[in-house]
Amino acid sequence: xxxxxxxxxxxxxxxxxxxxxxxxxxxxxxxxxxxxxxxxxxxxxxxxxxxxxxxxxxxxxxxxxxxxxxxxxxxxxxxxxxxxxxxxxxxxxxxxxxxxxxxxxxxxxxxxxxxxxxxxxxxxxxxxxxxxxxxxxxxxxxxxxxxxxxxx
Length: 152
Fold this sequence. Notes:
Blueprint: H1 2-12, E1 20-21, H2 29-36, E2 43-50, E3 55-61, H3 68-75, E4 80-81, H4 84-91, E5 108-112, E6 122-123, E7 130-131, H5 136-143, E8 146-148
Parallel strand pairs: 2-6, 3-5, 5-8
Antiparallel strand pairs: 1-7, 2-3, 2-4
C-alpha cells in the first residue's frame, strides 16, 4: 500500500510528519477540504505530468489550474497529464493519493508559487484517504523541489 511507502520514506529520512487517515475519501480537492475542514485552496494538489524527455510532479494549491503558456515557457513543452494507470505504475500512488513522498521512481518535483501564500498546506500521503500537514517551505525542503510559476 502506498501510504506505507510514505511512512517508510518519512522514517528513513527522520521526518516526524503525522499521516492522517480518514474514514472518508480525500481523493479530490473538494473531498479533502471537507474532511479537513479547510478551504480547498489549502489542499496541495500533486499532478503527474509527461514531458518529452522525462516525467515530473507539480504541486499546486488546490484551486489552481495550469496555465499552458506559463508552463510552456518554463518547460518548453505543453503540459500533458499521465493516465491513471501510468500514475500508479510510476509513482506507486493511485490518482487521488499522489504525493511527492515515497515514490516508486525518481521524479523532478516542482512546487508552484501559488503555495507560498499559505502557512500550511495539506498534500495527500499515498492513498485516497490520507494527508499530512506541512508548511510550503517544509515541503520544498523534504522533496528537494524547485519553485515555478505555472498556474493561472
